[in-house]
Amino acid sequence: MNKKKNKIFLIKGISFIKFPMVCIFLLTQLVLTAQQITVSGTVTDSKNQPLPGVTVIVRGTANGTISGTDGSYTLGNVGADDVLAFSFVGMRTAEVEVNNQNLINVSLEEETIGLEEVVAIGYGTQRRENVIGSVTSVRSEELTSAPVSRVSNALAGRLPGGIFL
User: How much is the mean pLDDT over the chain?
Assistant: First the structure.
C-alpha cells in the first residue's frame, strides 16, 4: 500500500511538491527578463539638427552608448523604470525617464557661458573663479596692431611671466 501511495505523488521522478516550486522559479525568471527592454531614438539640437557623439547612459550604471553620425542611438538592457542621461559638450544634460518606452527622441539645448568667465589653459578650459594663480588677458586689438610675423612675438612683453618660443 505504501508503494502505491508514493507512485501517486511521483510522476516520472518529479514530486508534486517540487513541481510548483519549479514553475514559480521559471515564472520569476520570465518576469525579470521581461523588464529589460531596448531603447532607441534620435538626439537633435534646438534647430532639429542631429547631434553625433552624444553620450547616452543609464543613470547609476555603466550601461551606455554614443549616438551615431545621424544622431541615432540604440541601447539594450534598459530597465522599464530606468532614467537615461543624454550629455554632449556645449549642451545642457537631459535626463528622461524610460517609462517602458522603446522610442525616445531627445532635443538638447545649448548651454551658453560668457567668454569672460572662461580661461584657456594648456589642457582644457576652466571658469575664472576655479583657476588658482595669476590670470591675465590681452585684447585682440593689441595683438593685431603689432607688426609682427608670429603670435608669440606679439604676446611677448604683454603677458607678465609668459615664456614664448
Answer: 78
Closest by Cα among 103, 106, 50 to 74: 103
Alpha-carbon distance of 131 to 120, in angstroms, equals 10
Ranking 61-65, 74-78, 154-158 by mean pLDDT, the lowest is 154-158
The pLDDT, as a whole number, for residue 8 is 46
Residue 82: Cβ-neighbour burial (10 angstroms; 0-12, 13-18, 19+): buried
pLDDT of residue 104: 96
Query: What is the rounded CA–CA span in Å between residue 118 and residue 41?
Result: 33
pTM: 0.53
The CA radius of gyration of the chain, in Å to the nearest whole number, is 31
Architecture field, domain 37-107:
Sandwich (2.60)
Q: Please give the span between the terminal C-alpha atoms of the chain, in angstroms, as a whole number.
A: 104
CB under 8 A, 24+ apart: contacts of 67-72 = 67/42, 67/43, 70/42, 71/42, 71/43, 71/44, 72/40, 72/41, 72/42, 72/43
Residue 38's pLDDT band, with cuts at 50, 70 and 90, is very high
Question: Where in the chain are the domains?
Answer: 37-107, 115-155
Give the phi and the psi of residue 120 in degrees, each rounded to 5.
-80, 130
